[in-house]
Amino acid sequence: MKKYLQITITTLVLFGCEEKNETQSTWQIIERDILTPSCANCHIEGTAIMKQSGLDLSEGKAYDAMVGVQPKNTAAQNDGLFIVSNAGGMKGLGQSFLWEKINAHDREHYLADHPEYGQMMPPGENFLTDGQLKYVRAWIEAGAPESGVVAEETILADSNRYEPPPFTPLEPPEKGFQLHLGPFEVDSNFEREFFQYTDTKQTNDVFVNRVEIEMRKGSHHFILYSFVPGTSSDQLPNYEEARELRLKSGGLNFSTLRSMQHHQFFAGTQWPRLDYRLPPGVALRLPAEFGLDQNTHYVNRTDSVMTGEVYSNIHTVDESEVNHIAELFSMTNRDLTLPPKKVTTVKRTFRVDETTLFGQVFSHAHEKMTEFIVEIDGGPRDGEVIYWTDDWEHPPILNYDPPITLSAGEGLKLIATYDNPTDLTVRFGFASTDEMMILFGWYYK
Ligand code: HEC
Question: 221: closest CA among 291, 170, 272, 276?
């Protein structure tokens, strides 16, 4: 057999000064170049993610954890899949849950046909490169061996990445309602962020168990806000009026800031496309007395005017189908002081005062954030990492099924690290040059 470009590493054995040549197997390269950098931060012993997914992808453990092993995901199990099948060829590929979870090019099929397979990996839109995908595919097709070279390493050089399809308006939901914002213009070299309060025209509270959002390119985030109970009508904004957050002069619009004080986060995303379903029997209650305040933030760093547009589908179920009402939360640390030319880590713990089950969390910060970790604080799972990201722009929205249960007095510890290369102290604020430290999500009691 012809041998292709094998990587040879030379180890200088200290005692005896003897040189030894070692060929890296395809599996070793998958571990070193793909799993360790892109997956093991989450899939590692001691994290809630590892408990939930059952999958430890740390070096030395990943092979036995995947090859010939049944997935923990019950839908995939019922479909007869292995995490990685060693049957080889098309059959091996077709039976490998791992391939379904990472093959970004088949994403539309995955999302449409396998909603119960969980998220694609890694979560968010930071897909593996085409080279990494082809390399893993070649390895699975070769029967997923632990040793030996079964794929050309040059394949890895292909750094293209799957791009999600262009913006397409959503069809309105069968049960529920749709919101549509825009199209609107975003000036060149401008960050346009505005709020628009919209009448949802509901006469009774509705129970929401799925939210779809679709946005035109260039969005930094999109959030739907309701209002905290007790907000009086004179504290609510006018319907269908765009309230700019940032003025062309660079300053902030204070009347808009004031209107944000009574907000209650409802749903949001930092990806161009979201399709989020709550577990069966769990739904978010949306109070009929308020509309939804749509908040869009587009960043246009080009020299031409850009167009923004957002569709949101709010899918509802009958109250009789709801066993648990999910409550939305935001844990916000406004106490941020990030000195110039320094890397700073900020910690803050938020405790619960009664048993609370968390079903979803995701972080929100701006561009100086380099790492955001959430740990359980107190109780039998003290110190367990439930959330990790190094991506301020597209942080993964993590869902926990079963939810993470905390008892009274236990809490979630937010640990955020920021790198401030500027000459100025950076504090909490709304501009992208300010910083934020927020954990969003929902829970039920
Ligand atoms: C941000 C954290 C995070 C990262 C990074 C991550 N995963 Fe996951 N993974 C999860 C969570 C949470 C689950 C369980 C829920 C789900 O499947 O969506 C999961 C589930 C899985 C499963 C299903 C396991 C089973 O038996 O059901 C596979 C396979 C998997 N991940 C592979 C990967 C691979 C490969 C990578 C890197 C390319 C990766 N993950 C990166 C969080 C992560």
Answer: 272
Q: Residue 184 in contact with residue 244, Cβ under 8 Å?
A: no
Q: How many CB atoms lie within 10 A of CB 229?
A: 10
- 369-398 residue pLDDT tens: 999 999 999 999 999 888 988 878 767 778
- Distance (Å, rounded) from C-alpha 108 to C-alpha 72? 23
Chain segment 341-357, per-residue pLDDT in tens: 999 999 999 999 999 99
Say if CB 336 and CB 437 are below 8 A apart.
yes
Assess contact for 415 and 363: CB atoms under 8 A: no
* Cα–Cα distance, 55 to 38 (Å, whole number): 14
409, two tokens: 């007095």
Amino acid at 374: V
Question: Ligand 1 centroid vs 56 CA: distance in angstroms?
Answer: 10
Please check whether residue 437 is in contact with residue 414, taking contact to mean a CB–CB distance below 8 angstroms.
yes
Ligand 1 atom nearest the C-alpha of 389 is 1
The count of other CB atoms within 10 Å of the CB of residue 383 is 10
How far is it, in rounded angstroms, from Cα 207 to Cα 317? Answer: 6
Point out the ligand 1 atom lying closest to the alpha carbon of residue 398: 12
- How far, in Å, CA of 159 to CA of 34, rounded? 13
CA distances from 138 to 70, 161, 187, 209, 279 (A): 21, 18, 46, 39, 35
The number of residues making up the chain comes to 445
Residue 209 confidence (pLDDT):
93
Q: Which residues form ligand 1's pocket by a CB distance below 6 Å?
A: 38-39, 41-43, 49, 52-55, 71-73, 83, 97-98, 101-102, 118-119, 121-123, 128, 388, 396, 398
Give me the amino acid identity at 358.
Answer: F
